[in-house]
Specification:
263 residues, alpha/beta, eight-stranded mixed sheet, two-stranded antiparallel sheet, 10 helices, 36% helix, globular, binds adenosine-5'-triphosphate
Length: 263
């Protein structure tokens, strides 16, 4: 059994949720951000660890990519606060040029992710969300083995659900004996702004069937939403939490339910 890492003295993280996806580009980082915004709106103290080391996108979504995280003693790293006070740690906040590729081998990436837990001054957090790299590779394995993850949220697009990729993520979590809070189907449909009709651009979703087969719950089905994308692109995702307050509150309630209370 692999020993779990311990956070810095003075850190108190109540729940850790890892966000996974079978493959890249399904909206995992966008959904992680939406979860953070929704929980923050309800008053929770939230942090995001961007463990997608080679493709970090959290700082840009929150408009903090111009800010640098710092360490006054060379050991403890201070996370960067977003406008609404969500604490973020990402490699993009530590490197000089955010468009430089991270040409690192697996072990170094794994060690960095662990340091994002052990060496970051997270302080008091109700929830730490981990934006995992896509797939079921080395880094998700390191995170599941060495960090005390309480639960997993799987993000998928309608097309993946029928394929093996989502099942692989689900099976990995099951093998590691970490509870799966549920699945978020992203880009599920498009709602016409004129007639409010839902259009299933990728065909009628198979999410219910797939979720039943895998014995997991559907947490949320998110539409293709140009306004959400625009706000994410502009680094103003927290504005979405204001203009779609009801939706975000509902999403946070579902997460709260699954987490089983955040004491
Ligand atoms: N609900 C949505 N509606 C429309 N576009 C979306 C939605 N969710 C995400 N997108 C867009 O899809 C693209 C991929 O999203 P995102 O970066 O969150 O995916 P990802 O799964 O984290 O990708 P990766 O981990 O491979 O970098 C982005 O351009 C994002 O704006």
């Amino acid at each position: 059994m692999i020993q779990k890492e311990t956070p810095l003295e003075g850190t108190n993280i109540k729940k850790i949720i890892a966000v996974m996806s079978g493959k890249g580009g399904v909206g995992k980082s966008s959904v992680t951000s939406l979860m953070a915004v929704s929980l923050r709106n309800k008053g929770y103290k939230v942090g995001i660890m961007d463990a997608d080391i080679t493709g970090p996108s959290i700082p840009k979504i929150f408009g903090i990519n111009g800010i640098r995280a710092f360490s006054s003693d060379g050991k403890v790293i201070q996370p960067v606060d977003t406008v609404t006070g969500i604490k973020v740690m990402s490699l993009n906040l530590l490197i000089d040029k955010e468009d430089d590729p991270v040409v690192w081998r697996g072990p170094l990436i794994g060690a960095t992710v662990k340091q994002f837990y052990t060496d970051v001054a997270w302080g008091d957090l109700d929830v730490l969300l981990i934006d995992m790299p896509p797939g079921t590779g080395d880094v998700p394995l390191t995170i599941m083995q060495s960090l005390p993850v309480d639960g997993i949220v799987v993000v998928s697009s309608p097309q993946d659900l029928v394929k093996l990729i989502v099942k692989k993520s689900v099976n990995m979590a099951k093998m590691m004996a970490i509870p799966i809070y549920g699945i978020v189907e992203n880009m599920s449909y498009f709602e016409c702004p004129d007639c409010n009709k839902k259009h299933y651009l990728f065909g009628e979703s198979k999410v219910e069937e797939a979720a039943k087969e895998m014995d997991i719950e559907i947490l949320e089905r998110l539409p293709i939403d140009p306004e959400f994308v625009e706000l994410c692109d502009e680094g103003r995702v927290e504005v979405f939490g204001k203009i779609r307050f009801g939706f975000c509150e509902n999403f946070a309630n579902k997460l709260e339910d699954k987490i089983g209370g955040i004491e």
